[in-house]
């Protein structure tokens, strides 16, 4: 199994406002805040859950927050922490508003530091389909690396209006060779995310964060999967992920792996005309799609 959406950090490398956002979220959930996510804890959770590989997705918030590390220092921190970890890869987190500086760093991160793709976080304050960002997308095409885009709900002090999945439709249409992943299936705009993926064969979705629904409103997960299958996004363009450790309080990674790897649609949806999922389809979601897209493997 591959977890295609995880995070690592220490509290001394992120902004105080992000720490405060985690405290607010934890208070709302009635749990202790997760202020650190060391790589050792990730590896332990992976071992306990049967997850063999994972993809770390850093976020660049340096243009709208005071960050302890510079852009280059943050890239190097993540690249260096996985340099001797055969089970882990990292993307580079980069805000495209950085312009020429950002383009240089994107190329350096991929070609010199071994980063496997680009993670962008529009809730920091930008619409991702702006023409001024097109050189970044073209560079990813040239370097043959995927782009993961945060879509949907975001944390306190960020701006959710920039995170609608539809803002990646123009990019997907204008860069048909660019591999794009809409993180979190755009929740709560999952129908929009599925639509964008359905019309653009270069777009996939990841299910990270959906363990919140799996733990408290399971029908929402089943209905999302049923719709994704109807629109032919499930199984071949759906990717398993957890957003570790941000939803461990709702459903720990081990339970999320078990839930999704054994997922079957309830009879009420089959009676409505939706088709049941199969073991082979679940296998594609749990690891084969990520192995192909993020690790460059071919069947």
What's the helix and strand layout?
Blueprint: E1 2-6, H1 16-29, H2 39-49, E2 53-56, H3 71-81, E3 88-90, E4 92-93, H4 99-111, E5 118-120, H5 134-143, E6 147-150, H6 169-174, E7 180-183, H7 190-199, E8 203-206, H8 211-216, H9 218-230, E9 238-239, H10 253-261, H11 267-271, H12 279-293
Helix pairs in contact: 2-10, 4-5
Number of folding domains?
1
N-to-C span: 15 Å
The CATH topology annotation reads as TIM Barrel
3D shape: globular
Bin the helical content: 40-55%
Structural class: alpha/beta
Level-1 CATH class name: Alpha Beta
Task: Look at the structure and give the mean pLDDT.
Answer: 96
Helical segment count: 12
Strand arrangement across the biggest beta sheet: 4-5-6-7-8-9
Contiguous uncertain segments of 5+ residues? none
Order of helices and strands: EHHEHEEHEHEHEHEHHEHHH
Query: Total number of β-strand segments?
Result: 9
What is the C-alpha radius of gyration, as a whole number of Å? 18 Å
Sheet having the most strands: 6 strands, parallel
Q: What is the beta-strand fraction? A: 5-15%
Overview of the structural elements:
With 299 residues, the protein is α/β, with parallel strands linked by helices. The protein has one domain: TIM Barrel, CATH 3.20.20.140. Helix content is 41%, strand content 10%. It contains twelve helices and nine strands. The chain has helices at 16-29, 39-49, 71-81, 99-111, 134-143, 169-174, 190-199, 211-216, 218-230, 253-261, 267-271, 279-293, and strands at 2-6, 53-56, 88-90, 92-93, 118-120, 147-150, 180-183, 203-206, 238-239. The strands form two sheets. The chain has a six-stranded parallel β-sheet with strand order 4-5-6-7-8-9. Helix 2 runs parallel beside helix 10 and helix 4 (99-111) runs parallel beside helix 5 (134-143). The longest helix is centred in the last third of the chain and has 15 residues, at 279-293.
